[in-house]
Amino acid sequence: MADKPFIFIGGADDYLVDRAGRERFGQVAAEIEDEFGREVIDGYANNVDEVEKAVAQFNQAVGTLPMFGGRKAVWFKSVSFLADSVTGRAEGTLKQVERLKELLSGVDPAAVSVLITASPVDRRRSFPKWCEKSADFQWVAGGGAKDNPRALQELVESECRAFGVRITSDALAMLTAKVNNHTRLMMEEVRKMAAYLGEEGRVIEESMVAELVPEFGEGDFFEAAEAFFSRDLAWTLDALRRHFFAGHDARGLITTLQNRNRLLIQLRTLLDAGEIRSGYRGLDKAAFEQAARAHQEAFGDSEAKNSFNVFSQNLWYLGKLAGGAQGLSLRRLIDFQTEFIRAFEQIVARPNEQEEVLREVAIRCLGRE
Fold first, then answer.
1. From its phi and psi, is residue 5 left (phi > 0), alpha (psi between -120 and 50) or beta?
2. How many Cα atoms occupy the beta-carbon half-sphere of 230 within 13 Å?
3. Residue 19 is part of a domain; what is its CATH number?
4. S-S: 83 plus which of 11, 37, 120, 356, CB 3.0-4.6 Å?
5. CA pair distance 32, 61, nearest whole angstrom
6. Same domain? 130 vs 27
């Protein structure tokens, strides 16, 4: 840092960037004896006016001496206007970014320590490239299980160690699925479960994640879907009662059931054709990747995660689905899909009997188990 005028920390995940920035600012601020010499400026901006205000506040912060003299530390945190967004591309924002560059070029590190944390960042722009050359630059990689599963696993395991607990691989995979790859939510849920464990049984198991962690994201009603595809009628009926008691609508649940069943239909087809293999450790990765290449033309180049493309899904998750659906034939899965379509039609005709409609579906589908 001695020969660099400021510190820049960027990345795709705002939680990880903020975490790294908080740790770095703690180190910088520890050298500042006067608490009034430590200043934090919020750089989050929804429009050009807010960008101008944020840059003006930063300018004032770096240009103002501490009340009792001495060095100063300024953290320009949560800068959001360096992204490839409407605000980030606006002409007024680009002018403010140039102004910020001028301010940073004139910073005297002997008088003020400056830290900037930004997420997301469009690294194709000239400003981030300039920061890489001119600043004490740190890029925080990853942030999602799909983007960097190993980094996320290490982050969760590190958090568990900090609380004196351990998490099993199945529990970690289920947690990732339930919070929809959201890093911040994952960390909060780990802390919650560590507190719940107390001093005994310091292991986070899959059953605990299923019981304590709610579903986040687009209507993925985890328990009812798990119960249904476990083919446990009693559990399914209980899960449906809790679902509707909580005030949820039937449409989101039916969509979740359809999405999971759609994946199972694709998995069953690939398994029956011998294109992929399933063992006690889940799906064979090499065979799965080979099948993905073979069918790439049918699915296109989109990497978006959706139930119409089995190859866009997490491999562990698919392995769990395949293992739990052993004994389900392709014909029966198609029958399930037909029942879900029928359920949509029924809730339109009987809007005040949504729970009854889904209970009837469960009994017809699972009553012979």
1. alpha
2. 13
3. 3.40.50.300
4. 120
5. 15
6. yes
Report the run of H or E that residue 42 belongs to, with start and end: strand 38-42
- CATH of residue 168: 1.10.8
Calpha distance 127→189 (Å, rounded): 36
Within the chain, residue ranges assigned H as helices are 14-29, 48-63, 86-89, 91-105, 126-134, 149-162, 169-178, 183-197, 206-212, 222-229, 233-245, 250-272, 285-294, 296-299, 315-324, 330-349, 354-366
pLDDT in tens, 261-277: 999 999 999 998 999 88
Residue 1 lies in a domain: no
pLDDT digits (tens, 9 = 90+) for 51-68: 999 999 999 999 887 766
- pLDDT tens by residue, 169-192: 888 888 887 776 778 888 889 989
Angle between helices 169-178 and 183-197 (to 10 degrees): 130
Rounded to two decimals, the pTM is: 0.55
CA distances from 362 to 295, 349, 368 (A): 33, 18, 10
When pLDDT is averaged across residues 23-37 and rounded to a whole number, the result is 86
CATH of residue 230's domain is 1.20.272
As a whole number of angstroms, the distance between CA 258 and CA 206 comes to: 24
pLDDT, tens digit, 9 for 90 and up, residues 200-215: 668 998 888 877 887 6
132 and 42 in a common domain: yes
Q: Residue 307: give the domain boundaries.
A: 222-366
Q: Which two tokens stand for residue 241?
A: 């009662």
Residue-wise pLDDT tens digits, 95-143: 999 999 999 999 888 889 999 999 999 999 999 999 999 999 999 876 5
